[in-house]
Amino acid sequence: MGNIKKSFFAGIFSAFTIGILTILTYKTEFGVFLIASFGSSMVLLYGYPESPFAQPKNIFFGHLLTAVVGMIFLYLMPLPLYIVLPLAVGFGVGLMILLNVTHPPAGGNPIIVIMGSVSPDYLLNPVISGSIIILLFGIIINRFILKKTYPNLK
């Protein structure tokens, strides 16, 4: 696929996917479905779906793991922000790599969790529900519309 065509479709489908999450967040009573790091996930999911970092287990567990790490540091580590933020990001990144679920956009989740002082409900909405919606659209769009092998079945 040519670079212009690839960039066009990545942009269109990113806008579509984030648009659905935005509508769910602001036009329904279902809760929050958006986090900033999902925008970065679009780059991998639609621009580079063949990347190991764009695979479903990486997207889902990368986001979930780093959000949990953020929660642990937020609620269990009563340290100043200038200490807790870098430690949480470091632990989150290290655990993603150790557990082979690296998804670079998820590296920002501990910052989002801690700076937002989010409640534990945040894990369900938006992290889990949003990740599942992103993955459903990613699989449908990449496999059935763009005719790409996604997810990689290696």
Helices and strands, with pairings:
Elements: H1 3-26, H2 36-47, H3 56-76, H4 81-98, H5 109-116, H6 124-145
Attribute tags:
single chain; 154 residues; mainly alpha; 6 helices; 68% helix; globular
Structure description:
With 154 residues, the chain is an all-alpha fold. The protein has one domain (3-145). Helices cover 68% and strands 0% of the residues. The protein has 6 helices and no strands. It has helices at 3-26, 36-47, 56-76, 81-98, 109-116, 124-145. Helix 1 (3-26) runs antiparallel to helix 2, helix 3 (56-76) packs parallel to helix 5 (109-116) and helix 3 (56-76) packs antiparallel against helix 6 (124-145). It starts with a helix and ends in a 9-residue tail after the last helix. The model has no long low-confidence stretch (mean pLDDT 96).
